[in-house]
Amino acid sequence: MTLSEQDKLDYNAAVRMLLLADSGAQPIEQFKQLAARGMGKAAWNVAVAYLRGQRVAVDAAMGSRYMLAAALAGEERAFYPVSRMYMTGLLPVAAGPNAQLQRFVAARWFWRALAQGDPRAWADCSCIHASVMFRCLGFVPYR
């Protein structure tokens, strides 16, 4: 998705507002509007705000949804946190508990984080079974 020049100006204005102590939740609301239009950086900022309780009440579910939106929009900083959220169940894959599916989806995001050079992802690769990682990468399972 291509962002308009106005979206970029709105983002910069929200960042400036975020630096002001008395702006309240207004920059977060502006980031939400930009995230709804597909801006990954804005979704990242909203996710961090909800996860850390900055200018809004802490809400892990809302934060994880915005973090996933950021990752899907291509925001590289969100790849690793999304993988952890899938591994811990904060972002459920299916309605029922399905550990293998959770690991598979987490492996996909771990791989994307690794491909972008995120050093945090290397430490967590040991918790994912190799066969899941290979399936994630598209290799034919060994027999």
Automatic annotation (TrEMBL):
Highest taxon of source: Bacteria
SUPFAM superfamilies documented for this protein: HCP-like (SSF81901)
Name the record gives this protein: Sel1 repeat protein
